[in-house]
Every structure is written in C-alpha cells, then in structure tokens.
Design brief:
Blueprint (H helix, E strand, L loop, with lengths): L2 H24 L9 H5 L13 E4 L3 E4 L4 H7 L11 H10 L5 H13 L5 H8 L7 H11 L5 H7 L7 H28 L13 H9 L4 H13 L8 H11 L4 H12 L7 H16 L6 H13 L17 H13 L4 H20 L10 H10 L8 H22 L12 H16 L1
Antiparallel strand pairs: 1-2
Helix pairs in contact: 4-19, 5-9, 6-7, 6-9, 7-9, 7-13, 8-9, 9-10, 9-19, 10-11, 11-16, 11-19, 12-13, 12-19, 13-19, 14-18, 15-17, 16-18
This protein binds N-hydroxyamidocarboxymethyldethia coenzyme *A.
Length: about 450
C-alpha cells in the first residue's frame, strides 16, 4: 500500500472507532438549536455535519487542520529556493493531519504526475462544445466525462465490501486531482488560444506544470499558482461547493460525480464566480469613470450606484467571516512582495478602504469586509491572464484538494446518506399556532 494511503487507513480507522464509542455514549447530546430565521435563511450556522480537513472561525478565518495560512506558509515544504507553499503539502496535511516532509511532498508530486493521463475521449468531449462555452461548464463536463474511469464505480459494480469504499475513493481522488491541471489548461488553451495546447512538463510540481500548460510565463506566476492553489483549497464543509460535493458523495456517487456537483455550485456568482464578477465590476467602473486611477470619492460614487441598481458589491461580504478574509490579506501580501506599481492592484487596495464603511452604513450587511475573490483577479491581470471567465476554473482546481480529501474521510468514517428534514410554510404556521396555544394554557 502507498505510504499516504497506509497512514490514512490507520488514522481514519482509529477515528472511526473513536466516533463509534462517542456516539454510543453521547449520541443524544444537544450541540445546537435551530431558530426559524435559520430554517428560512439558508441554514446559516446550523451545526449539522462533520468536516475534518479545515474549520472556519468568523474572526480568525480558515485553519487547515488547526494551522492558519501564515503558519502554513512557514511550515509547508516549498520548491528549492521558493517562498510559497506547495499545495501537494496541504493535501497531505488535510488528508492525514500531519505536516509532510519535503520527501513526502515530492512523493505526492510524483504520484500526481504518474496518474495525470487524461482519457482521450475527455478532450473529444471538450472539443465538441462551442468554443465560447463558459469555462466552468467545460470543467464540469470534463470531470463527469472522466467518470468512465472511476475505480469506485467499477468496484461497486463488482460487489465491493463497504469497508473498502474509502480505498476506492482515495484512488479516484488521487487520479482526478492529478488530471485536473491538464484538463483545466486544455480548456484555457482551446477557449482563448486557438487550441494551441502546451504539453505537460513532468519535471515540474503540480502548480508549476499547470502554469506552464496555461502558457503564462515566468517564475513569479508559478509562485502565484502555488499560493493560489493552496489558499483556495478548503473552507470547512458548509460552503456551497464543499457541501454540494459532500451531499452528492453521500449517495455513494464517486469522486467524479461528487466533484462535478461541487464545481456546479462553485460556478454561482454568490460563490466562486465572484472572482470573475469582481474584476468585471472593477473594469466596468474604470471604463465608466474614464480613468485607470480613480479617486476614493469616485469609487465611493460608483459603489453607491451599484447598490442603488439593486446589485451586490462582488468580493465583499461573507456568510461566516466577520473580518477581512485572511486569503485576501495573503494575496495582498503576495502583491506587495512580488508586484510593484500596478494600477489595477492599487484600485483593489483603494476599494478595500472605501467599500467596508459604505456596506457597514447599509445596516444589514453582516460582514462588510473583502473575501478571497476581491483580490485574485487583479493579480492575474497583472501577469497577463485577462480572460475573466476563466478565473473560477483556477478556484475549482484548488477546491478539489479540500473537498476530495474530505470525501475520502466521509467514506472512511462511514458517513451515511445526507437527508435533512424540510417543512412547508403551512407546517411552520401550524407549529407556531400550537406553540402559542400551549403557552396560553
Ligand atoms: N453587497 C451588497 N449587499 C450585500 C453584500 C454585498 N457585498 N453582502 C451582503 N449583502 C446584503 C445581502 O444581499 C442581504 O441583503 P437582503 O437582506 O436585502 O437580501 C444582506 O446584506 C444580509 O446579507 P448577509 O447576511 O450579510 O450575507 P449572506 O450570508 O446572506 O451572504 C454573501 C453572503 C457572500 C452571499 C454576500 O455577502 C454577497 O452576496 N457578497 C457578494 C458576492 C460575493 O462576493 N460572493 C463570494 C463570497 C465568498 C465565496 O464564497 N467565494 O467563493
């Protein structure tokens, strides 16, 4: 058995036994109460699932297995001479809860290189789509098309014992993650570069090879990709792409179907598509104002006009966070360190000063601060990647690391089919009436 799989087997079996006795002894312990606002309000904050790979604190932001993003930048292995963490290391950490050694990270890179062959029919499926098909539609389609090679689906059909579900899910997860950069780069080159594809360079790490196949030159862009693919990977289990992956997986749909479900959720403008919407909004503002260097007052007026038109300010607000997103701050740190004198990045930073007080002034926005999507587009534009519709695909490639490692955990811990209870508004009315009657008696 491979070393990562071996460690995962040991750790997950130990936790499974622990959970079993926990539920036997304390299974009826109350951990939450749900109020009507949450029932109608997107289940905000309801504790109803377990997600081992990361946890989100409203003020501190995301912690992957307990480590913050700045801590991970120090602790995770890097390429020799490099400053940004390798996402291979984060995957190892999320899967087994240990910071890997450089050798272990190299092992993951090698595994993903070996497993990265994309089936020929996936390229044909992509080529059959109109070239202006949104890249997220292409990504989701390509992922489902690779389901033909699912180890889980094949072994399930052969009568696999349920104790082996995690093993087959691990195999699918490793294969799928390994192939994503090739598929994503293929989508980019066919959509924006006349189908002039770039062959993989197997001497490179997962992110650098992706950067290479995209055709964006330079060591700094490779560094950006390492950071980008690390910080977008996971945001606990309740966010829409994670939860969708989890829900689909709970039916014993394999990693391919599950990830495609997650990607379809990521493609919404209130979630991952916000990175495309932010940069579109910024350029529309600059065009409207007729300047590349707007003043803070000009930005303020434009923000107010966006709100007056009944639209949200993309890249701002969050369902859980109540502080500037550490992923935004990390990208700002990257830009300060690697990029100097960029007008578009200056606009992002001015927005950071101008927008929060305006949103705060509305009195209803619970978090006026920037989220992860407020910064990424401007950095990509700086490096010459100006195809905004592609940005969510980059997010998706990264998000696969978190949601698929969590899927391995779900199968290893034997989590059941997810099936919450829904009610009708009539049921709610009657429930409230009954409560009033019993309170008056
Ligand atoms: N601009 C204007 N209004 C906003 C707002 C924003 N950026 N963020 C929240 N609001 C509004 C909501 O629309 C809501 O208004 P109504 O009551 O009139 O419907 C009110 O403030 C309360 O919302 P909330 O409780 O603060 O926020 P939610 O948990 O409901 O929603 C969202 C969180 C992220 C969806 C929201 O902040 C938003 O729409 N932001 C803009 C889109 C965006 O950046 N999405 C990416 C989020 C991060 C992510 O998932 N990345 O992938």
């Amino acid at each position: 058995m491979d070393p990562l799989k071996q460690k995962f087997a040991e750790k997950s079996q130990a936790l499974k036994a622990q959970i079993k006795s926990l539920l036997k002894e304390r299974g009826d312990t109350k951990v939450d109460e749900v109020v009507l606002r949450q029932v109608f309000g997107g289940m905000r904050g309801v504790k109803s699932m377990v997600w081992e790979t990361s946890q989100l604190d409203p003020n501190d932001g995301i912690r992957f297995r307990g480590y913050s993003i700045p801590e991970l930048r120090d602790l995770l292995p890097k390429v020799p001479g490099g400053k940004e963490p390798l996402p291979e290391g984060l995957f190892w950490l999320m899967l087994i809860g240990e910071i890997p050694t450089p050798e272990q990270v190299k092992w993951v890179t090698d595994q993903w290189t070996r497993r990265s062959i994309v089936p020929e029919h996936t390229f044909k499926v992509l080529d059959s789509l109109p070239v202006d098909t949104h890249p997220m539609t292409q990504l989701s389609t390509a992922i489902v098309s690779m389901q033909t090679g699912s180890v889980f689906a094949r072994r399930y059909a052969e009568g696999m014992n349920k104790s082996e579900y995690w093993d087959a899910t691990y195999e699918d997860t490793m294969n799928l993650i390994a192939r994503l950069p090739r598929v994503a780069a293929y989508i980019y080159r066919r959509t924006y570069h006349g189908g002039k594809h770039i062959a993989p360079d197997i001497s490179l790490d997962w992110s650098a090879n992706f950067a290479h196949m995209l055709g964006v030159e330079g060591e700094d862009f490779k560094s950006l990709m390492r950071l980008y693919l690390t910080i977008h990977a996971d945001h606990e289990g309740g966010n829409a792409s994670a939860h969708a992956t989890h829900l689909v997986g709970s039916t014993l749909s394999d990693s391919y179907f599950s990830l495609a479900g997650g990607m379809n959720a990521l493609a919404g403008p209130l979630h991952g598509l916000a990175n495309q919407e932010v940069i579109k909004w910024i350029f529309r503002m600059l065009d409207t104002l007729g300047t590349r260097r707007p003043t803070k007052d000009q930005i303020k007026d434009y923000v107010n006009s966006t709100l007056a038109a009944g639209k949200v300010i993309p890249g701002y607000g969050h369902a859980v966070l109540r502080q500037p997103d550490p992923r935004f701050i990390e990208q700002k740190r990257f830009a300060q360190e690697y990029i100097h004198g960029s007008e578009i990045i200056d606009v992002v930073w001015k927005c950071f000063e101008v927008i929060p007080p305006i949103l705060q002034g509305l009195g209803k926005v619970k978090n006026p601060w920037p989220n992860v999507d407020a910064h990424s587009g401007a950095i990509l534009v700086h490096y010459g990647m100006k195809e905004f519709s592609y940005y969510t695909v980059l997010f998706g490639v990264s998000r696969a690391l978190g949601v698929l490692s969590a899927l391995c955990w779900s199968r290893a811990l034997g989590f059941p089919l997810e099936r919450p209870k829904s009610v009708t508004t009539k049921w709610v009315m009657e429930y409230l009436e009954k409560q009033e009657v019993s309170a008056n008696n």
